[in-house]
Each structure stands twice: as structure tokens, then as C-alpha cells.
Amino acid sequence: MEFDTKTPLYQTSDKTSFAYISARDRWPIILTGAIDDLHKAIGKTDDAEKQTEGKSIVSELAKLKYELQHDRQLTPLADDGQGDIESYNKELEQLGNPKWFDVPWLFSECYLYRRMSTLFKLSTHWKNYDVFNKQKMSTFRSSRPAVLELANRYNELSKQLNSKKSSPQSEDEQMAAEKVLFTEMCEICLWGNATDLSLLTNLTYEDIQKLQGSKARKAAEKNIIANDFEATFELLHAAKKAGTKDRRVDIVLDNAGFELFVDVILAGYLLQADLATSVVLHPKNIPWFVSDVVPKDFSDLLTVLVNAKSFYESPSEDDEAKGVTPQKLSEQESSDLSLLFQNWSELYAEGKIVLRPNRFWTEGGSYWRLPGTAGALFEDLKSSELVIFKGDLNYRKLTGDAAWDPTTPFTQAIGPLGPGSGMRTLALRTCKADVVVGLKQGEDERLREMEGGGGDSGARKWAWSGKWAVVQLCDGKK
Ligand code: F6P
Ligand code: MG
């Protein structure tokens, strides 16, 4: 594609890459999970036509899994009426109709989810069915301790931020305190990206304290191997000080559940601290990479908050199987969640938090194509003070999922979104793939030498687990 990087891309044929493992081990499991979910849903309907249609989607999913596991060619996508199908199919042709185990990782993984989506979109009864919804909800349920602690913390913070008491501190002291708080909120948001690996879903009271300024949170800072939080704070603070009237921050979302929860926590904090005057959230249009946010996940989150008692106190399927009764919410916990709901629904009703889906996010290419192929979206993002990209896939797309030397500056690896682009980009990413840029000389080697880091196998294993993170800023307005 004309807009893409010329640096070689990660391929599913590369034995040392996470791409190789994803294609052979992870994708068949994901497809099996989708088949199981749909199978159960079919069992719950009495509508014969819906059952028949559901069964035919199940067999299409099984066919897709067979093709994948037998290294067949990727076949052209069926036209489900959306404009992106043509470009997917054109790209397939340009790639020479590749096979599953020898294809650029990024494109083939996007193709996988896009193809799954066509099966539902072309149906009558399952058009809006999300095969990943149950998984997303149950992961969210299991992060209950963290959600409760954060709700409480957020409400306390809101009270402080809205009480507008004059502070006895000097301006410098105040700014330093604000910076600490900003960093803390961003770190919570950053580590929330580890949730799809279940790293942060079962937080205990002590665990959550780790994220809230205690010594242990400081310790986790060591795992942020490139860290531009300070520069980001200074940028937002300067805009606030300059009295710029409209100061929008955008968040290109990643996962639903706990990660979306912490994203909205960050959004609410930025608004109440007056570091932004509006926050635009960008979800996906279709179920994507299992846990990514679709608009319904946002409304589901608000529904959970408003019906917190019934959500948390009625046993899940899993609880029922184990004969477990969930603990009741305390008065304090219930009231924290309902206060949080009030606060967020007010911000939403006032138009300060906005949801703005766009088909571009589920296309098969990288964000190097943004200026060239999605001009209106690019213009919109340029009018934002800061665009935050959450998570691993967004990072892969920003950097083209290419095999850069890890010391390549982030500003260079994002190509057309780099300096002079007019757009400010901040990546908040826990590393779960091969690509990484912007590291100090020798850092990749140091991490490879650590236990499980990959050693001299040629694989960058340390970057697959979500244990390490990068926070990288590019001020494209300069
Ligand atoms: O780890 C495999 C994978 O599917 C990657 O392809 C993708 O980048 C990541 O998981 C999803 O992570 P995230 O939700 O942080 O984008
Ligand atoms: Mg994701």
C-alpha cells in the first residue's frame, strides 16, 4: 500500500515472532470460544429460523477455523454492505492471495475478525450479536475489588476537585501536586490495558493500593521502559494555563470491561481537573480482537453501575456451577457506584464525554494510512489537544507492526503522524507483541537477558506478556 512503511512487517511465518504463535495457537482457541458461545445462544432461542441461521454461522466459523489450521488461502470477504470490504479484498489480491501461515500478521489478524463479523452482518437474526460479549462481561465482574476501590477513590477526588477551595500552596507546589495526581490516574489507565491477560482483573485491596501511589506503584514505574507522562502533563497544563477555551482530549479505546472503566475514570478526572474541556472516546464498530469496546459495551458499563446490586449479587454461570454465592455489596460500595454513575451520566448528558465510532479503526491496515485514506477523521483528530491510543493493537497500528530497530524514535516509527502532522499522539501500551520502538540503547538486550525474556533465541519474549509498558508522546503540532 502506498502509504505504508517500507520497514519489513511482522509475518505469521516468522518462527521467532509472537505472530507465529498467535496464528497457530491463539486464533483457533478464539474461534472455538466463539463457536461455543454461539452454540449456547442458539440453545436459548425457540425461534426455529433463528436456530437454523445460527447453526449455519457456526458451520462457517468452523470452516474458517479449518482453513486457518490447514494453512489455506485467505479467501475474499463477502460483501456485507460496508465500504471497507473492497479495500480488504484489494489488499488480499495485492498480497498475492496469501496463506494463513505466511502473511503479514497485522493484516491477517484484522481480516480474521472482519471475516467473523461478515457472517453475523449478513444474517437476519444475528446481525448485532457479539460473540465476545459474555466474555467481556465476566472479565469485568471478576475485577470487582478494583472497580469498587477505584469508584471510591474517584468520588473522593471529584469532591476535592469540585470544591474549588483556594489552596495555601504556591503555584509551583500546586503544579507539582497536580502532576503527581495526573501521573497516578494515567498509570491506572495504562495498567488497565493488561486486563485481557488477566493480570489486573482480580485485584485485592492491597493490589489496588499498588496502583494508587504506594511504594509498589512506584515499583511498577520501573516497568515503564519509555515514559513521557511528564511531557504530556506539561502540554495539557500549558493549554489550561493559556486559557484555551476548547481543549479536547481523544481516547482511541482498546478493551471493554475493566479497561474501559479506567479509561472513563481518566476521562472524568481530566474534565474535573480542567485538563480537558471535552473527551471523545473512539470505540470500534464491530466485535474486534475479542475484548475491544463496541458502543454497546459503553452502555453496558453504565447499566452495570446503575444496577450494581443485581449485577454483582446474582451468581454468574460460573458461580452457579461452583455453587458459590457472590458477596453482597456494602452500603458504602453501592452508594459509591451510584455516585459514580451520576457523575458519568452528567458528563455524558452535558456532551463532555462523547462516543464517536469510525469504520477506519477496523480496517486492515496501519495508522500510517490515516492521513491518506481517512481525511475527515484525521482532520477531526488534529483539532484535538491530545489523542491517546490505548493498548497493544493500537500501538502495532501506529508503528505499522514493522520490525523496527527498538531504538528507532517513536516519532519516526509513526511515520505520517509524526512531527509536523498536526496531531498529538500519546501511546499508552502494555507490551503484548513483538514491535517496540523508542527504547534506550541496550534496553532490549537487557530485557532479553532476563528470565523468560527470550535470551539468544531471536524472540523478543519479554515484550509478549504485558509486564512491561511504554508511554510515548509525539507532539505533531510542532
Ligand atoms: O497478543 C495477541 C493480540 O491479539 C495482539 O495481536 C494484539 O495486539 C493484542 O493481543 C491485543 O491486545 P490489546 O487488547 O492490548 O490491543
Ligand atoms: Mg484489545
UniProtKB/TrEMBL annotation:
Write one Pfam family the protein is assigned to: ARMT1-like_dom
SUPFAM superfamilies noted in UniProt: AF1104-like (SSF111321)
EC numbers for this chain:
3.1.3.-
UniProt lists the family membership as follows: Belongs to the damage-control phosphatase family. Sugar phosphate phosphatase III subfamily.
Task: Give residue ranges for domain Damage-control phosphatase ARMT1-like metal-binding.
Answer: 23-446
- Which reaction(s) does its UniProt entry say it catalyses? beta-D-fructose 1-phosphate + H2O = D-fructose + phosphate; beta-D-fructose 6-phosphate = dihydroxyacetone + D-glyceraldehyde 3-phosphate
> Origin organism of this chain?
Aureobasidium subglaciale (strain EXF-2481) (Aureobasidium pullulans var. subglaciale)
Functionally, this protein is described as follows:
Metal-dependent phosphatase that shows phosphatase activity against several substrates, including fructose-1-phosphate and fructose-6-phosphate. Its preference for fructose-1-phosphate, a strong glycating agent that causes DNA damage rather than a canonical yeast metabolite, suggests a damage-control function in hexose phosphate metabolism.
Protein name, as recorded: Sugar phosphate phosphatase
Q: Name one GO cellular component term.
A: nucleus
Domains (record comment): Subfamily III proteins have a conserved RTxK motif about 40-50 residues from the C-terminus; the threonine may be replaced by serine or cysteine.
The GO molecular function terms of this record are: fructose 6-phosphate aldolase activity; fructose-1-phosphatase activity; metal ion binding
Xref: PANTHER family: DAMAGE-CONTROL PHOSPHATASE ARMT1
Alphabetically sorted, this entry's keywords are: Hydrolase, Manganese, Metal-binding
Tell me the cofactors it needs: Mn(2+); Ni(2+)
